[in-house]
Give the backbone structure.
Amino acid sequence: MENFYLFVLTCIFLIILPGPDTAITTRNTVTVGTTGGFKTMFGTCCALLIHTSAAVLGLSAIIAKSALLFSIFKYVGAVYLVYLGIKTLWGLKNKEVAATTETAVKNKYENQSCFKQGFLTNLLNPKVAVFFLTFLPQFVDHGTNTFLPFLIMGITYTVLTLVWFVFYIYLLNQISAFMKKPRTQAIFEGITGAILIGFGIKLALEKAHN
């Protein structure tokens, strides 16, 4: 492995850039609380470990080279992101019609679904698999066995993602008094829903091979 510190620095910038994972983590942290944010984060990290395993075992290469497989992952992931966005916007409509009181059963259900949302949002994004395939080889010596370097870099990326989201979730929690005002939350959820739909449409329109 070469330029490991450059790899870490690049990862930090890439992780901080807003994307579908950040959008869904933000939404669940604001609407459910830090527990929801952490569950979403763990779901995302579990999906990243699967992508790491896929890269190590060569499955990412198969997905990237097969237009059919790429398209299947792409459209399933896009549909799921659009679904989450519509669900968020629909939730706003329901809040306006229904009473503002939230039952413990509803909170429990939302809490349990956060892990799944974070997991599927990341797992069904084929760009993550392609990212691992195209990004990791740049930091490996030519002609060497890629198994161990890919494994180390994949785990490093996952750990950095975990650290960033812990900081990010706690930051959101610190300003929760402002973020949880009904009007602020409604505006924020509306923006988040639109962003998720936008990411889904963008993902659906991505070409199989850049």
